[in-house]
């Protein structure tokens, strides 16, 4: 007998409304509740209709390529990815690759160690023709691709997971202008690397708000620090 929405709701301890939202891929359900519904539906053998979310046939093997280095943000991101993946029943394995730099060559070398069992890849990479070719080859091999933090829109990725970096830059400029209280002056900008589309977008957003809202402030220099803390102090 086919499982019903009510059966799934009882199994996972959620309302039928929440279960319906998840199965029909509508907003209004948290990531945790979505996972609970998906797990219960799979255990009960629920068969979705054509317009509903399709449950994976087996747990996925995921691999992430991150330029961690000495970057605390990257290290924290890697930790949270591993921690969350360990709690998801639809993830069979999760492996983090620490890239030796941000160059396309570093990504190419790491991808050569990709498991043959990999179903999905998450990557933080620079937007470069060689990078796009590497990512395209992964997708052509049947691997689902997600870009993280900084997008590579020309790559055939399934999704981009991250903030709107241009809005982030605009927000930073708005705060800076208000904190300075109408004073006139020159600003120094430190950019991680313009090779990242996300960093370039933040700089664009920052500069655009300064020119629009705070013409009394001028960016006199913009230095790429390549995510090295010591370079910031120098």
Provide a short characterization of the protein structure.
With 234 residues, the protein is α/β, with parallel strands linked by helices. The protein contains 9 helices and 7 strands, in the order H-H-H-E-H-E-H-E-H-E-E-H-E-H-E-H.
Which residue ranges are poorly predicted, with pLDDT under 50 across at least 5 consecutive positions?
none
Report the mean per-residue pLDDT as an integer.
87
Please provide the count of β strands. Answer: 7
CATH architecture designation of the largest domain: 3-Layer(aba) Sandwich
Task: Write the CATH homologous superfamily of the largest domain.
Answer: Response regulator
Q: How many domains make up the 3D coordinates?
A: 3
Task: Sum up the structure in keywords.
3 domains; 234 residues; two-stranded parallel sheet; five-stranded parallel beta sheet; 43% helix; alpha/beta
Summarize the structure in words:
Helix 8 links the parallel strand 6 and strand 7. The model has no long low-confidence stretch (mean pLDDT 87). The strands form two sheets. Strands 2-1-3-4-5 form a five-stranded parallel beta sheet, with helices on both faces. A two-stranded parallel ribbon has the order 6-7. The protein is 43% helix and 18% strand. It is globular and about 70 Å long. Helix 1 (5-12) packs across helix 2 (16-23). It folds into three domains: 5-43, no CATH class; 60-161, Response regulator (Rossmann fold); 165-233, 3-Layer(aba) Sandwich (Rossmann fold), CATH 3.40.50.2300. The protein has helices spanning 5-12, 16-23, 31-43, 72-86, 104-111, 129-140, 165-179, 197-213, 229-233; strands at 60-66, 91-98, 120-123, 144-148, 159-161, 185-191, 217-224. It contains nine helices and seven strands. The chain is an alpha/beta fold and 234 residues long.
């Amino acid at each position: 007998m086919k499982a019903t929405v009510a059966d799934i709701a009882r199994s996972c301890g959620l309302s039928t409304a929440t279960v319906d939202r998840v199965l029909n891929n509508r907003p209004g359900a948290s990531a945790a509740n979505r996972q609970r519904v998906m797990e219960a539906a799979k255990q009960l053998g629920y068969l979705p209709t054509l317009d509903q979310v399709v449950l994976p046939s087996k747990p996925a093997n995921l691999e992430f390529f991150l330029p961690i280095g000495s970057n605390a943000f990257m290290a924290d991101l890697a930790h949270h990815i591993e921690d969350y993946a360990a709690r998801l029943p639809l993830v069979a394995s999760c492996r983090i690759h620490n890239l030796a730099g941000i160059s396309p060559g570093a990504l190419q070398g790491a991808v050569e160690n990709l498991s043959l069992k990999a179903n999905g890849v998450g990557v933080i990479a620079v937007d470069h023709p060689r990078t796009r070719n590497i990512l395209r080859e992964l997708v052509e091999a049947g691997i689902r691709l997600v870009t993280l933090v900084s997008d590579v829109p020309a790559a055939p990725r399934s999704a981009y997971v991250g903030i709107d970096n241009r809005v982030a830059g605009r927000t930073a400029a708005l705060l800076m202008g208000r904190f300075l209280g109408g004073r006139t002056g020159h600003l120094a900008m430190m950019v991680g690397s313009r090779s990242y589309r996300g960093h370039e977008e933040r700089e664009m957003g920052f500069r655009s708000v300064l020119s629009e809202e705070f013409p009394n402030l001028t960016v006199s220099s913009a230095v790429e620090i390549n995510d090295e803390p010591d370079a910031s102090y120098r």
